């Protein structure tokens, strides 16, 4: 599976080839040198990136698409995401509050004005629409999204992420997001691999969720949105 994924990414964009080679070097040389490599990958394109679309094409499009719709299910859709939320995530990568070996060095290479421009650009794009999925799982996920699980003390997701996953400037838009990505982020919150949630809210919620609940709510959110 890992080999198939790597081949897919290599065929998707030349940018991935550079990043995968850099990540291989990361494992051999350690974080400091690999960070420098990743910055150097981005730097030539960033040098003349005065407008958001240019930065997006040079830095973001390989994974997230030029229109903000992720090119593979493990990469989140950024189109239609709230600008304030996007800026926080970028800054969290830079400051180390959110950890990702690929995203951190690339985001660190952005200038402050580029961060704002990129966030505003993606926020202005038409969001990804919902996709058909397992009808039974979607129904289960919708119920959980609305009501949570009173037996385990999990509140409904709708309280923060709004009707049909629309989100707001504090809580992200989840509608139309890849079910794989949502499930993985919930698992990361549960394991503590991701820790940049406000007030540890998502960690406390995910800690009480089962894998089946995560998959169901992820399937539901992937099915909604226009």
Describe this structure in words.
- This protein has 226 residues and is mostly helical.
- The chain has 2 domains: 2-124, Cytochrome c-like domain (Cytochrome Bc1 Complex, Chain D, domain 2); 135-223, Orthogonal Bundle (Cytochrome Bc1 Complex, Chain D, domain 2), CATH 1.10.760.
- Helix content is 61%, strand content 0%.
- The protein has 12 helices and no strands.
- Helix 2 packs antiparallel against helix 3 and helix 4 (52-64) crosses helix 7 (112-124).
- Mean pLDDT is 83; it is low at 1-50.
Give the count of helical stretches. Answer: 12
CATH class of the largest domain: Mainly Alpha
Tell me the distance between the termini. 31 Å
How many DSSP-defined strands? 0
Sheet of most strands:
none
SSE order, one letter for each helix or strand: HHHHHHHHHHHH
General form: globular
CATH architecture assignment of the largest domain: Orthogonal Bundle
Mean pLDDT score: 83
CATH topology of the largest domain: Cytochrome Bc1 Complex, Chain D, domain 2
Rg over C-alpha atoms, rounded to the nearest angstrom: 18 Å
Report strand %. Answer: under 5%
What is the helix fraction of residues, given as a range?
Answer: 55-70%
Q: What do we call the CATH homologous superfamily of the largest domain?
A: Cytochrome c-like domain
From the helix content, strand content and strand pairing, which structural class follows? mainly alpha
The low-confidence runs, each spanning 5 or more residues with pLDDT under 50, are: 1-50
State the domain count: 2
